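Recap from last week: sequence in, structure out.
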Amino acid sequence: MTTQTQRPDAATLLASLRTQAATHVFTEPDDKAYAAAYEIGGDDVAQRILIERAIIRLAVQDLIGAGYAITIDDGKDTPVKSATQWERVMPHIGHCDEEWINVMERREESENDVTAPQWSRVGSIYLVYATNGCDVICNYTSDLERPLSGANDLAMALREML
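Predicted structure tokens:
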């Protein structure tokens, strides 16, 4: 089972993200990999990207922690299907201008029938990049309000500090 990273308060996180953006020395392995694969630009752009990734990371961790699986749909491909480890999801986040996270729930009938689909979609999260970072979660299914509360609270706290 995957463990979650410790959650700093929003002010501590923002200070860390600003330092990482300025130095291009990243603490999260998935951010390191993202920065190695893509030109993330100057301090302001790097900070925005790191804020987006921090909010999405928390949302994905909380959803998986609540027992859901994650499928990523970028409009062309589905690079992640029914992932139950956040480390499998994050390398595929932010590779285009917008993406959908489809939130999947295990189907009970799949336990007794191996031909039945194991997962069914219970909700979606619409991600839009390159705005201000804090509003990366553009829209989502109302059923996901509770498991997304941590990510929404983080986004709101970061927005107030910027």
